[in-house]
């Protein structure tokens, strides 16, 4: 199995969707990387009953959805009450990645076409997922609506953790709008795709929105760094930018070096 090769985004060395879902059979280093993200989230937001974590990146194809899905699975493995919400109402992929249904989902719920119980899918992994639903003409408007805020409140009473998967923050306003409802934000940065400027732009947008950036998850990291990581030395590696934010930096990279 290969995760995070330096091929172009949108393919990146994965041969099929199932291969990189977090399961007990994926290499140890990959499992550990996602567990470490889980631990860092737990410690970064200690005092809230329901922790709402938004996952975004500067650009398209940086592995936001993969990160959101796998971190959610890592929480489910921990027996946490966890809900993954696909808030990418433009190019949603979470349902497909998880072999779940695309609708009814968030959009259907927001316009009153179904109930919460009809929209939430309980997966065998223990993870609950609210898929994006039918693609709407006005994603930003829906996500910024009072109904969305009300829905988040309802969900807070049911779950310990809510992970919000979003579109790229430099492309559309959706992630910025949602960051106001989140306890914290994880910024995914893919090596070889996002430039320093892109990352700084993304961080600036989050700063203006008053969002709490919990950390940066690096994806597509180069071999050598990942080797270090899998030996337990890679934690804390960064590019030098966003030092103030990078409390939970980690790489999920080219983990060709199989489990050990
Ligand atoms: N850790 C990783 N390292 C490198 N590539 C990855 C990693 N995780 C997933 N990928 C690959 O990156 C591609 C994009 O993944 P994903 O759909 O998660 O990105 P995204 O940021 O959600 O994209 P979009 O902006 O379109 O929503 C996928 O084809 C996937 O195979
Ligand atoms: Mg995505």
TrEMBL record:
For the keyword ATP-binding, the answer is yes
Top enzyme category: transferase
Q: Supply the alphabetized keyword list.
A: ATP-binding, Kinase, Nucleotide-binding, Transferase, Tyrosine-protein kinase
Which stretches make up the AAA domain?
52-194
EC number(s) from the headed UniProt entry: 2.7.10.2
Do you know which InterPro entries this protein is assigned to?
Answer: AAA_dom (IPR025669), Bact_polysacc_biosynth/exp (IPR050445), P-loop_NTPase (IPR027417), Wzc-like_C (IPR005702)
* Family statement drawn from the similarity comment of this UniProt entry: Belongs to the CpsD/CapB family.
> NCBIfam families annotated for this entry?
eps_fam (TIGR01007)
Q: What is this protein called?
A: non-specific protein-tyrosine kinase
- Organism name: Butyricicoccus porcorum
């Amino acid at each position: 199995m290969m995760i995070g090769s330096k091929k172009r985004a949108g393919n990146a060395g994965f041969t099929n969707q199932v291969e990189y879902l977090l399961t007990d059979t994926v290499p140890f280093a990959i499992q550990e990387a996602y567990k470490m993200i889980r631990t860092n989230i737990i410690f970064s937001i200690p005092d809230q009953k329901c922790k709402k974590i938004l996952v975004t990146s500067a650009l398209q194809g940086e592995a936001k959805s993969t990160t959101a899905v796998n971190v959610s699975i890592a929480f489910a493995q921990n027996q946490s009450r966890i809900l993954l919400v696909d808030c990418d109402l433009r190019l949603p992929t979470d349902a497909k990645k998880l072999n779940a249904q695309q609708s009814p989902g968030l959009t259907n719920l927001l316009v009153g076409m179904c109930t919460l119980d009809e929209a939430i899918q309980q997966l065998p992994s223990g993870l609950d997922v609210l898929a994006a639903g039918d693609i709407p003409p006005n994603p930003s408007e829906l996500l910024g609506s009072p109904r969305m805020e009300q829905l988040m409140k309802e969900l807070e009473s049911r779950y310990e953790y809510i992970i919000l998967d979003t579109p790229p923050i430099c492309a559309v306003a959706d992630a910025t709008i949602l960051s106001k409802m989140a306890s914290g934000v994880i910024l995914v940065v893919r090596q070889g795709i996002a430039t320093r400027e892109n990352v700084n732009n993304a961080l600036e947008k989050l700063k203006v929105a008053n969002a709490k950036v919990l950390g940066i998850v690096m994806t597509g990291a180069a071999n050598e760094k990942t080797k270090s990581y899998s030996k337990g030395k890679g934690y804390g590696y960064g590019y030098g930018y966003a030092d103030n934010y990078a409390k939970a930096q980690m790489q999920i990279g080219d983990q060709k070096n199989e489990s050990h």
